[in-house]
Every structure is written in structure tokens, then in C-alpha cells.
Amino acid sequence: MKLDLKIQPLSSWITAKKQPLLIAGPCSAETEEQLVATAHLLAKTGRVTALRAGIWKPRTRPGEFEGIGSIGLEWLKRAKAETGLPTAVEVATGKHVEEALKAGVDIFWVGARSTVNPFTVQEIADALKGVDIPVMVKNPVNPDLSLWIGALERINNAGITKLAAIHRGFSSFEKTAFRNEPMWDLAINLKTHAPDLPIINDPSHISGNRELIPYVSQKALDLDMQGLMIESHIDPSVAWTDAKQQLTPAALDDLVGRLTLRQPETASSEVKDKLAELRNQIDKLDDLVIQKLAERMQIVEKIGQYKKDNGITILQVNRWDEILQKRTQYGKALKLEADFTEKLLELIHSESIRKQTEIMNQSQAPVQEKLTHA
Ligand code: PEP
Ligand code: MN
């Protein structure tokens, strides 16, 4: 399903100083000196297109630093005047929108904790009616593509066409190496729903630590995301928020300089031919996979009917364990990641169970009552 968004191309509202497009700045504006000095160092790298800073901070727990507030807008004005960098802030209420507009902020973003709440997003959208300003919408905290799309639609319906999404990862129950699980599939899914919508990656909030940022940034560029938003602080060790994930401007310069830029398309006909040949092979194999899955499901249906006729339960845990173990071992021998094989089997298994449940619950064809006439 293609979304009906009216979007202007990214180039109509932001021009990358250098590739990749980079929005950088501290998690929070803390003091005038910290913000202005960071902005100068970022501008000096020649890589940064816009300066970000949180003025109002949505904090999980009360009592943590909740942002410096409106005074920070004055500091942003000064940073912009001295460096020429356009500015970006998070807005979470209608009042934030009003104040940030008055202060001449160039780009707004909606934070992950706001995107989850349609009331909040609608309030921001209402305050944006009749205003021509770029807005970037972060994904919601939870992995819910509809919420992300809904927020983009609300902002777009308010007349904002300079629109982008920011992929900042998702909160998950399982603790992994990431602060927020990237769940790249969700961002790719958004791209297929809205191919014209630019997606900017936020490796800082996905990673939660400095070490993972290069890996996440490279992956985002390889997935053809249009830019990066990275937190940078003049001295991360004393940052008031997100200290572990912020980079000095020099470290940011170094990191971005090491990223490899690849092109989504190529002009070389030799490369195109080779790619087409390999894709052709993949298409044939995919067709085979689908065909085999369909054959598997036909057998599943037979088994379902057989179990039903013989009063046997759908699930036999031992049998499922055996499939999982044997196939994962086999996959390993063929150089497939165990995790991949397991996920694939689980998907196939749950569809098999669904099919068998359907069969079990089908009512018998109505038995024709024999009418005996006396
Ligand atoms: C931020 O950008 O500093 C921020 C609060 O991010 P998120 O909304 O992604 O948590
Ligand atoms: Mn932050």
C-alpha cells in the first residue's frame, strides 16, 4: 500500500555540505558556551549541514535534566549567526512550536516519545498549520510502523511538505548490544510504503554508546538512507544527557570521514549486466522457495485432516523440537546463521499451525438427513 503523502524532495530544504548529509550537535543545550563552542567546532569540520540541540528534553524519570528551556533558543540564534549553520530542535507541544518559530529555528523534529501519542502529534500538527518549515518525525519508541506512519500523515495533513522520517531504533524487552534495537526491516518497510519520503538515521540513539556508531552509520548508508543525525558535544564526559553516546566534534569528523559511500545506481553497463544476471538467479531461487513452501503447506493440510479424523492435537512439542534442532544443524552445515534458520522455521511453523487450526475448526459438511417416509 503506497501512502498518499505530499512531499518535497530533501534537496528543496536542505543541501548537504558534503556527503553524507549530516545533522549534528549536542543531545541537550546545556550552557551558552557549550552550545556555541560545539557549533563552531562542528562548522569547522566542513561536514555538518545543520546544528541540532535539545532545548526541551522528554525524560523517562522526573528529576532528571529536563532541558534548559526557552533561553536555549537564544543560544541557538547566536550559534547560527556565528557559524551560518541552520538549527534544528525537538518540539513536543504547540507552545514549543510557537516559541521555536519565533526564535527562527529552521528545522523541527518530533521525538520518539511524542510520536507514540496521536494527541501530542495532533497538537504539534495543529500548531504547524499554515507554516512552511521542515519537520522530521522520529520513529515511535515501540516497534509500531502504523504509529510512525500516522504521525507523518498528521504532520503532512497540516500542510507540511518538507517532511522526513528519522530512524532512531525501538525499545525492546530483550536487552541487546543496542540501546534501541534498529529493527532495520521497519525502516525498510516505511521506505516501501513511501518511496519519496527521506529517511535519516540516528545512530546515536540506536547505539547508546560511541563504539557502535560507526557500524550503525555505515549500515544506514548501505541501506540508502539519506543522511545521519549524530550527537556531538564539546566534552562528552561531562554531558548532562546521553554522555555515553556523544562524540567530540573531532571524533565525529574522523568517524564520518571513514564511512564508505556507495551509489544506489551505477552507470557502468558491465556492472549492470552482472547485477542483472545475479538477480535473475535469485529470482529463480525465490520462485523455487515459494513453490516448495506451497507444497509443504499442502502436506500440512493433509496432516491436519488426518489428525482431525484421528482426534490428535495439532501441536506435538517433541516433533517441533526435533524439526527445529535438525534443520538448524543442517542450516549451520550449509553456512546459514542458526538465528536465521530458527526464525524462518518459526514463521513456517506458525503458518502450519494456523492452517491446521482452520482445518480442525471447519465444521463437517452438513450430513444430509435421510427423510424416511413412513
Ligand atoms: C534526542 O534526539 O535527543 C532524543 C530525545 O531522541 P529520541 O526522541 O529519539 O529519544
Ligand atoms: Mn539524546
Q: Rg to the nearest angstrom?
A: 26 Å
What fold name stands as the CATH topology of the largest domain? TIM Barrel
Which oligomerization state do the chains in this entry correspond to? single chain
Q: Count of helices? A: 13
Strand segment count: 8
Q: Biggest sheet: strands side by side, in what order?
A: 1-2-3-4-5-6-7-8
Category from helices, strands and their pairing: alpha/beta
CATH architecture of the largest domain: Alpha-Beta Barrel
Strand fraction equals 5-15%
Q: In which range does the helix fraction lie?
A: 40-55%
The outline comes out as elongated
Number of domains: 2
Which molecules are bound in this entry?
phosphoenolpyruvate, manganese (II) ion
Name of the CATH class of the largest domain: Alpha Beta
CATH superfamily of the largest domain: Aldolase class I
Low-confidence stretches: 367-374
Which sequence of SSEs, written as H and E, runs from N to C?
EHEHEHEHHEHEHEHHEHHHH
| Separation of the first and last Cα atoms | 62 Å
Mean pLDDT: 95
Biggest pleated sheet: 8 strands, parallel, barrel
Polypeptide structure, described:
With 374 residues, the protein is an alpha/beta fold. It has two domains: 10-257, Alpha-Beta Barrel (TIM Barrel), CATH 3.20.20; 269-373, Chorismate Mutase Domain, subunit A (Up-down Bundle). It has helices spanning 32-45, 71-83, 94-102, 112-115, 118-128, 145-157, 184-193, 203-207, 213-222, 249-257, 269-309, 317-333, 338-361; strands at 21-25, 50-52, 87-90, 107-110, 135-138, 163-167, 199-201, 227-231. An eight-stranded parallel β-barrel has the order 1-2-3-4-5-6-7-8, surrounded by five helices. Helix 6 links the parallel strand 5 and strand 6. The protein is elongated and about 80 Å long. Phosphoenolpyruvate is lined by residues 27, 54, 58, 111-113, 138, 168, 205. Keywords: Coiled coil, Transferase. InterPro entries: Aldolase_TIM, Chorismate_II_sf, Class-I_DAHP_synthase, CM_dom_sf, CM_II_prokaryot, DAHP1/KDSA. This is chorismate mutase.
